[in-house]
Amino acid sequence: MASSAVASPRIALRHRLAERGVDRTLLLLLPAVVFVVALFIYPFVYGLQLSFQPQPGSEAVNRYGSGPFADYRNFFADPYLRDTIWTTLKIGLPAALFNVLASVPIAYRMRGRFRGKRTITTILVVPITLGTVLTAEGLLAFMGPTGWFNRILMDVGIVDHPVRLTHNYWGVVFSLVITGFPFAFLLTLSYLTGIDPTLERAASTLGANWFQRFRHITLPLLAPGLAITFCLSFVLAFSVFPSAIMVGEPARQTRVISIAAFHAAFEQYDYSMASAIAMIMGAVELIVIGLVLGWRARLYRGATGGKG
Amino acid sequence: MSQTKISELRLDQVSREFGGVRALDGLDLTITGGEFVALLGPSGCGKSTALNCLAGLLPLTGGTITLDDRRIDTLQPEQRGFGMVFQNYALFPHMSVRSNIGFGLRMAKVPKGDARRRVEEALTLVQLTEHADKFPAQLSGGQQQRVAIARAIVLEPPLVLMDEPLSNLDAKLRLEMRTEIKRIHQTLGLTTIYVTHDQEEALSLADRLVLLRKGRVQQIGSPEHVYTEPANRFVAGFMGYRNELELPVGSVNEKTVVLDGLGAGGLTGVRRDDLGERAVAAIRPEDFTVGAGPNATEVTVEVVEYQGREQAIQARTDDGVDLHLRAGTRLAPGDRVTVSVPPERVLVFAAESPAAPEEVA
Question: What proportions of chain B, in percent to the nearest 5, are helix, strand and coil?
Fold first, then answer.
């Protein structure tokens, strides 16, 4: 009698754990956990603690002493460093916004089945495979002062002098659009095809024209997906580095925050300053994503009736 | 409630092709105001195509649709103003029940107070007043269906289209909702076209049935007419004539015919077609009686299904023909019994029914 009383809670415990999803299949998560710890958490924590240990002899220590926040104070006190946040936001936010907004009508038009869909999708997605360096090369050749684009503009007579579209702000924005758009488009398309097409047909039988159907049915169901797409596009754009150097003006107009971090790490060999910049960069991204997701939390996020 | 009543909807040679395949082939149909018409047929017969063409969700490839002398087949769905109930309900998941029902009124820019009153009326009609602020995902299947119906009828459309609205419900709920649909139709008198593959549903709801097969009309008529006098062997098969016995033709008279086989005296039945050498006798299981009588034949009971008041029996004649019949008396597999069927309950059709179209290419 007593032994069974002891044995039964033991069985019950295993059952109770299993009911909460604790069983041996959890071991399948082990590789992922190892990867996350080794490749994300450890470097992150290492960088975080490094950012609180200013390097002796560095500019920050000379100015603000060797306290843990010297690097951060240095960053925010020096306009040359501090302004990289705005510079990057000024490039990243419009580029991400444009990519998301431009992908909506195209994906909306392409959500159904039609001939040649695969071809068009492939053409739209190819830039994602090119890589930033190739895109930058192409932009320089095409949009540069002697590129086709300016030659056509001048031949047609729209402008007298070549328009400067490379080695400045616009060059970087173009580059981010070219590489970021396919990504936003693919995400938006998959969110859109997850919306049951009969919902729009139902709306049309209820008297809604195409704009009303889009405005009242598709857009509200798509908005949470667009928020995610925007966040991912923004993170990609915010960490812009190669194109800011190759088609931008890395000394001034497109001196983005990753250039500042690179400069600190590999030209001044001040790793703690570079870590502090990286942490600030992450914090800015988190703030933007937090704002977007906060807005998203107020939207309907349930099933959209489609294939999901 | 009667400002949108129509007097006549006419479909004239309405056709729809999909890449050379005629899904709907020359549908002629005139519907008078207030009528409840069921389009009935197996899957792929063109009934949903017909409904989508009517709603404007599919453009026609031929023919015209006129509503009270106004041609409507060139109008966009939003300009037709028909209410439609979809098979999967198609409720807007991000809107409350109330907003779902009020969506059409909002699109039509009906003044707010008026719209609110009409939504409340519709909610009362489908008995969902206490669920008005819930979202579709919080409702059961039957409740979702009620919302879909309320949403379609709140605009008092000239025509309500229903696309197999009960097929996603379980058997009990299906019966309940069937009564509900009938009640709503009786209350509002809205002209309704109802698509279904369930003959029982069609018979119980509709004023008129349209039987379709491979895009062509097989028969149009009242439920009684179609039930008792099917136009061809396909309609007979669909209307519960479960026994379809293909037999050689013996002697043909003006109205009756004797087929060889099934019992010593052959099978006498009513001639419904011009007959060739072989013909098909269609008999309902419930028209067989166990015991001696006309068209008597001896069978061996093979499968017995208990169904409450009676049993559904599958039996085999000595010639190896399977018969489906019903019996009130207790039978067991292996029993030898004599069954008979009155000649007037045996409908004899040509083996290849002339009314049934050939395969469309």
Answer: 30, 35, 40
Euclidean distance between CA atoms B236 and B112, whole angstroms: 52
CA dist., res. B130 & res. B173, Å (int)? 19
| Residue B358, burial from CB neighbour count under 10 angstroms (0-12, 13-18, 19+) | exposed
Cβ proximity of B280 and B248 under 8 Å: no
Question: For chain A, which residues make up each domain, given as ranges?
Answer: 88-296
The pLDDT of B69-92, averaged and rounded, is 92
Q: How far is CA B188 from CA A236, B36, B193, B197, in A?
A: 58, 12, 14, 25
What residue of B is the nearest CA neighbor of A299? B94
Interface contact A205-B82, CB threshold 8 A: yes
pLDDT of residue A10: 63
Residues of chain B contacting A304 with CB distance shorter than 8 Å: 93
Mind listing the pLDDT tens digit for each residue in B198-245?
A: 999 999 999 999 999 989 999 999 999 999 889 888 899 888 888 988
Residue B92's nearest CA partner among A109, A208, A292, A294 is: A208
- The mean pLDDT of chain B is 89
* ipTM higher than threshold 0.85: no
The architecture CATH gives domain B8-228: 3-Layer(aba) Sandwich (3.40)
What value does the mean pLDDT take over residues B287-314? Answer: 90
Would you place residue A9 in the very low, low, confident or very high pLDDT band (cuts 50, 70, 90)?
A: low
**CA–CA distance from A41 to each of A35, A277, A286, B255 (Å)?**
9, 18, 16, 91
Task: Tell whether B18 is within 8 A of chain A (Cβ).
Answer: no
Boundaries of CATH 3.40.50.300 in chain B?
8-228
Residue (of B207, B240, B236) closest to B223 by Cα position: B207
Of residues A201, A207, A300, nearest to B108 (C-beta)? A207
Looking at B7-140, list the stretches that DSSP marks H as alpha helix, in order from N- to C-terminal side: 47-55, 77-80, 97-107, 112-125
Return the bridge partners of B269, or none. B257
Pick from B159, B166, B223, B167: which is nearest to B185 by CA? B159
Alpha helices (H) in A69-218, listed in sequence order:
70-77, 79-109, 117-125, 127-130, 132-143, 148-156, 169-193, 197-205, 210-213
Asked whether the predicted pLDDT for residue A7 surpasses 60, the reply is no
- Rounded Cα distance between A10 and A3, Å, is 11
Please tell me the distance from the alpha carbon of residue B116 to that of residue B101, in angstroms, as a whole number: 10
Within an 8 Å CB–CB cutoff, is residue B75 touching chain A?
A: no
* Residues from chain A contacting residue B137 (CB–CB below 8 Å): 302-303
CB contact under 8 A, A209 and B78: yes
Q: Which residue of B has its CA nearest to A207?
A: B78
Contact at 8 Å (CB) between A188 and A221? no
CATH class of A88-296: mainly alpha
Distance of alpha carbon A86 from alpha carbon A288, whole angstroms: 13
Q: Is B193 helix (H, G, I), strand (E, B) or coil?
A: strand
Does residue B354 surpass a pLDDT of 60?
no
B252-269: pLDDT as tens digits: 888 888 888 777 778 888
Secondary structure (3-state) at B196: strand
Phi and psi angles of residue B119, each rounded to the nearest 5 degrees, phi first: -65, -40
CATH code for residues B243-350? 2.40.50.140
Q: Are B285 and B325 in contact (CB under 8 A)?
A: yes
Q: Where in chain B is the domain with CATH 2.40.50.140?
A: 243-350
* Angle in degrees, 0-180, between the axes of helices A219-238 and A169-193, rounded to the nearest 10: 140
